[in-house]
TrEMBL record:
Stretches forming ANK repeats: 86-118, 119-151, 152-184, 198-230, 232-264, 333-365, 367-399
Organism: Accipiter nisus (Eurasian sparrowhawk)
Stated name of the protein: Uncharacterized protein
SUPFAM superfamilies tied to this protein: Ankyrin repeat
Keyword Repeat set for record: yes
Record has Magnesium as a keyword: no
Amino acid sequence: MGECGVPPQVQLFLRACEQGDCETARRLLGLPGGGTTTTTADPAVPSSSCGTEEAAEPRGEASAPPATTTAAAAGAAVAVDCTDEAGNTGLQFAAAGGHEQLVRFLLRKGASVQSTNHYGWSPLMQAARFGHLSVAHILLENGADLNAQNKLGASVLTMASRGGHVSMVKLLLESGAFVDNYDHFSTSVLNSSRDDLPDITPLMAAAQHGHEAVVHLLLDWGADCNYTVKTMGWSPLMLAAVSGKVSLAQQLMEKGANPDHLNVLHKTPFEISVGFKHKDMKDYLESLTTIRPQADTEKRQPDVFHALKLGNFQLVKEIIDEDPSQVNITNVDGASPLMIAAVTGQLPLVQLLVEKNADIDKQDNVHGWTALMQATYHGNKDVVKYLLNQGADVNLRAKNGYTAFDLIMLLNDPDTELVRLLASACMQVDKDKNKLNNRSSLPCSRSRQSLNVPMLPDDKGETAYLYVLWRNCSSSSSILLLWYLVDPRRRKDDVGRKLKLW
């Protein structure tokens, strides 16, 4: 058995699929045509030819396969839909890498086009995220679910829109993708079962990342320019304000976007542009916005949630000093003041609330999220670090079953420093548990480590990151992320090209 329960042959097969090595993949599946190569070519360069069905798989006794291939088929063949620890199949890796011939080959051999990893990503999502148009065509021809969503509620079209792949977005729309993640002509909403997860539409993803051509295309197809995220109240115009691109805001306004819409923090797109210091966006939205920031006169009837929305440290302190019970009161969604402060990322307010005996592990009534989860999801590293230092429970699970670490691993582009912080905390918890149970802190002994997975020095504490990341990432990509975390000198782009299944 290989690293953490994944057999070595499976690891080799998945790595071959990631690299587009058809010959090795065929051999490990125990099929003819994938015999041992005798060339002295660079082994790092994968074979890219899967050949034709007839040429690669001769039939009859006159064309028996080599002995090495027969042995592989008899004793070491892997299943075409075998997975790593994160549930990724060979087809997932091949689709993410854009390996068209290998994708065709795996589908011919019975690979499931609907397979999803533990985070809900399908092969089509992988192809869409990285703009592999020909691979998407193949998967759609083989019945891939066009409107599937991952466990964060993001659809295939959302993946393509986030990446700014105009041709991919056009293909998906013309093939019948729901432009807003639900069928406009049906009463049943596609993501109605995902009320406990933050959701984002393709238009929001494109607006947030400044993809003007994609925004234009989605609006032409009838995307709702006033759709809002239920949990946070953000609209496409607000996300355009974050990007700072005035042309995006203009497109949305032409389609009827509401400049006076308020999010859960009572902020308009104009106020958001001010906060991000986008002068041109601020100047554009200011003349369109009729709702102005609330005046200080509202302090006459102070409320801790209103004070938090204002970001007024002194007012929050005065309110809690006068009525200490307000530190743990909840709003209509069951959120506490500490959770609101964690969302906004205002560390001084978070510190004040904790010092005033805020319940650091309190969970809201709607989703079961804690302040640590909110800070993690919104990328507020200083708040995450502080809450962890104050003993926030990293093992608490939301109503959907996810911990704070699970949330960071579900994001498309997880922040490496946040991963490091949470991984370290998780590892410490595991060490403490293992001490109580008198067993080693590592799940696999050093003698059973795969030869393909280099072990890092224990004295640097780097095996802790290996252990936690290995449990949550694909077998071939986790070690690359680990190298980047412990050696910031590595080029992020080089590592990022390999981390395709995030």
